[in-house]
Amino acid sequence: MTEQTQKQFPQVVGDVAEILSAPADASGSIWKLEPHTRGLDCNIIAIAPGEEISRHEGPDLDVVIVVLDGSGVLETETDFIDLVNGSMVWLPKLSVRRFVAGENGLRYFSVHTRKRGLQIGRPPARD
Fold it and tell me: Quick one: which of 12, 90, 99, 112 could link to 63 by a disulfide (CB 3.0–4.6 Å)?
């Protein structure tokens, strides 16, 4: 069997308590799902106190986030959503978003279908 078709089995992939023990001023992706043959992308994002992920259009796929620690605000095209410990938020594909961390920072778990990588292939036929 190739790596692509090899059967996968359930496994522990991380410890949230251990991951969240990182310093509160950490920023960026502090954990990500590692197995290469998977259908999901998951990570834990940390935003330091008072910092932000600037306004941008999300990817062409739905994303769900769960706030694990801290607080903040999610700015959308039409609203402001308070983010507190335990908040679960659906971000529709291509939705505009901006995350601003509160005074204790913000850490959230993010999950979505895996983005397709670049494909090598033949260009479309020309007429």
Answer: 112
